[in-house]
Amino acid sequence: MQETTANRVAANATSSFTEHLQRERPDLMPFGHMPFNQLPAAGQAAAPLQAPHGTTIVAMSYAGGVLMAGDRRATMGNVIASRHIEKVFPADQYSVLGIAGTAGIALDITRLFQVELEHYEKIEGTLLSLDGKANRLGAMVRGNLPMAMQGLAVVPLFAGFDRPAGFGRLFSYDVTGGRYEEQEHHAVGSGSMFARGALKKLWRPGLSEQDAVAVAVEALYDAADDDSATGGPDPVRQLWPVVYVVNRTGAVRVPDRDLAAVAGRIIESRAVAQREA
């Protein structure tokens, strides 16, 4: 009996948009397609392409949820490629994603992840669990491994509100797609070492949402002080970090006017203290 179109579609149906895309249109995937047996041998890796890279992302828990913030600078070698790039995005209603690394691939992975979660919700009629979202993202990062071995790595941070558990959770990854649940706070990107140092001093259990925003902005300010690839708050251009808070009501972006006020207080306090570092 000749197979009908409906039967063929039903047989190939999947709740994963990524799997569907890999099967039907692999050319549209954001990942590299070079087979592993064609990758350069150890010690013979090709020189990395000159492509815009984004840094730095910080995330932390606070009383009632999680927060994620990213600076606005992208660099290409020693050149500032952009001062306006956004690196933190809502993945769905209850989770956010921040990506450091090769900007173009990172943005493609972000868009694909957003569609992946939306597709799952439409097919299954329910939201994917937070652990399921974190696992799906890890698989996408692992799919980019051939490009990462060419110097085009993408390293995300993922955070969301676990509605059944009633609290926010935070996940970090490595370039192989390894997933690690972080406690309290974390940072990725070239300025992460300096941001983590600031977070260790400034973060405390039970932070209010307002205080958590201030801690995130100051951590990015410290990272920008010592890392040339990280851009700090820019009052001249009116450029502020991208900050999202996620709690039981969903993911919300913090308005620029609030970030301007927070950054202003940080700059003023350091000026009054006459701090050089």
TrEMBL record:
PROSITE patterns recorded: PROTEASOME_BETA_2
Activity regulation info: The formation of the proteasomal ATPase ARC-20S proteasome complex, likely via the docking of the C-termini of ARC into the intersubunit pockets in the alpha-rings, may trigger opening of the gate for substrate entry. Interconversion between the open-gate and close-gate conformations leads to a dynamic regulation of the 20S proteasome proteolysis activity.
Subcellular localization, as worded in the UniProt entry: Cytoplasm
UniProtKB keywords: Autocatalytic cleavage, Cytoplasm, Hydrolase, Protease, Proteasome, Threonine protease, Zymogen
Positions of the catalytic residues: T55
CDD domains the record matches: proteasome_protease_HslV
InterPro entries: Ntn_hydrolases_N, Proteasome_sua/b, Proteasome_suB-type, PSB_actinobac
Annotated HAMAP family: Proteasome_B_B (MF_02113_B)
NCBIfam families tied to this protein: 20S_bact_beta
Family: Belongs to the peptidase T1B family.
Protein name: Proteasome subunit beta
Organism: Arthrobacter humicola
